[in-house]
Amino acid sequence: MSNNVIKHTVQDGVCIISLASKPVNALSKAVRVGVIEAMNAALNDDSVVGIVICSELALFSAGADISEFSGGDLSPMLPEVLAVVEGSTKPVVAALNGGAFGGGLELALACHYRVSVAKNKVGLPEVHLGILPGAGGTQRLPRLVAPELALQMIVTGAPTKVELLQGLFTSLVSPEALLSTAVNLAKDAAGKNIPATCNVALEMTPQLEEMFSQTSAQTAKQARGFFAPLKCVEAVKAAFTIPFDEGLKEEGRLFMQCMKTPQARAQQHFFFAERAAASVPSIPKDTPVRDIKKVGIIGGGTMGGGIAMNFANVGLPVVILELEQAALDKGLALIRKNYENSAKKGKLTQEQVEQRMSLLTGTTSYDDLGDVDLVIEAVFEKMEVKKAVFEALDKVCKPGAILASNTSTLDVDEIAECTSRPQDVIGLHFFSPANVMKLLEIVRSKHTANDVIKTSMVLSKTIRKVGVLVGVCFGFVGNRMIEVYSREANRLVLEGVSPERIDKIIYDFGLPMGPFTMGDMAGLDIGYFVRQSRIEFIAHDPSYCTIADELVEAGRVGLKAGKGVYLYEKGSRQPIFDPSIMDIAKRKADELGIEQRDISDEEIVERCIYPLINEGANILMEGIAQRSSDIDVIYVYGYGFPVHKGGPMQYADEIGLSKIVERMKYYESAFGDYGKHWFTPSPLLVELANKNETFASHKA
Ligand code: T1G
Prior knowledge:
The chain is an alpha/beta fold. The chain contains 29 helices and 17 strands. It folds into 3 domains: 6-259, Alpha-Beta Complex (2-enoyl-CoA Hydratase, Chain A, domain 1); 295-470, NAD(P)-binding Rossmann-like Domain (Rossmann fold, 3-Layer(aba) Sandwich); 478-690, Orthogonal Bundle (N-(1-d-carboxylethyl)-l-norvaline Dehydrogenase, domain 2).
């Protein structure tokens, strides 16, 4: 008997149980029931001497079905299934044709033998979901591989090449030989002593004690603010201090401790959010994708060079245009330097460096862009400059070429309208450093054709980015939201809070750095020019980033100048607090009639984060983002919002939208004209709060 997700047949005395649950053999209830039924059938069949568990899909298994975590009748739980496998009186061999992750690897660990294709990776990534391996992984893995390797795999969740896990596999073979090797192994093992993993004895030693305490100390630093990683250490340590069955119980206890946390909800939300971003329901599924075989980049500066690397990294030839040969040479040299640095760190071989550099050519003539399928401009952020580039591209690029702008704030509709082919124009907003940051904001203008959007979304996955579709408005999603966050942080300084204290509070909230450290790194002049380009937007508020404006006008533009909000010693990136900033703040506060006062940490977090959430609600209401989880993806991948909070919108859902509304209304009334203009709750936020609903439940 088989169901449609588990099949089993007997071949030459061996029962072959095949996982066939598309798309990734997630170990759903149906799969768990199917495995137990197949195991019982094999155990009750006297003609069967051994059992092989394999997969019909590309992956062996992606582990537990994460979509089941929201609840329901989950029996039989995975540990129960694995106990049947491990307790089998007939040898069970796992045949890994592809990746085995989480519960998928735990299933293999419960088998008595394992064989894998040689080119394969396995892992226990549960920590990325805010939990830990909950089906024996923390107790079985350290019984099969070196303790420090098992501990690192579980604490980091990193996929590991099977060739580094020799103790785990009886053999690593070619794909063609996998099944026969597994079947023969099962037959050879028949009738012999069953090497159940649970019977491997472990004991604690002083060296291991030291390893666990060192790992805990490192993890507390590296996984700052996360709950699950330290619980992973506790669970693995239990394998060395208590018997196996008690260890399973301790693992289960720690698993449930993690599963109940807001962090687990946030990280599981984010897992699906990242994947949902690729979905554009408004585009028909049969929309074709344009073939991108060659890419042009206009501008070989930091951004242009970084963008070019993304395509060379995946084998696509790139031609970079700069009008001056010197600038072109400098740009290509910078790319080479980046690759050479990666090679020095062992991330690339020298051969790969040369192979990628060979894909990058330069030109000073637009005529050389006649055969590109996609061109991305990364020139100075001024509309006139961008329009001139697109007019030139319109003349030389072949019909059907996609013309993209890397603009971070400008109107892509207006850029498209300066060409004869507005339907081929789109925004591809990379985040600096463009060859590192995972986020790509895909900006659709009102003219952009569906196949251009779909091609851009597919291309984002090809270059290993997370593409998120956004609409046209000032700053699209990310920069529009960061603007209100920066405004409020600057206002707090005027009201007497030091930048250093604000940065510390926001760092402790979970961002990689506070607004002022970030501003100095990016350059205060960027925000300054943005404000200069939209004076009408801020004209009514003379306090708007007024300290930052004074600093820029005095040449204090940030780290690159050795002074911004903070001071920097030559060659150092370490911010040094400059008390004179508070003198400027006091002077300006007096001029503007702003009262300076003691402000609580809680108010600082609320005033930096709630307006950001409120702006996200407006973005959602205006249809600039397709869904609230897209905003979360943008904020986590583009701005370092802590993934253990799931992104700003998930964080708001966790707090409760009514609380956000209540606090926004408090500040709206407490701060006079300033509050009335900047703290008006978004109508969508109010509507959802009144209905006791969440952003996640809102369908645009
Ligand atoms: N559960 C449910 N759905 C899953 C899934 C899973 N474990 N893994 C993937 N999917 C869906 C995914 O949402 C997408 O759906 C489709 O499959 C293709 O995924 C007890 C408790 C394995 C590296 O954390 O890391 O086991 O968008 O686009 O790029 O200890 O999927 O098409 O509708 O990512 O080839 C632990 C999670 C679970 C692994 C393959 N396991 N998955 O990447 O495909 S907890 C994980 C991945 C656990 C036990 C505990 C990746 C992949 P849709 P994809 P991919």
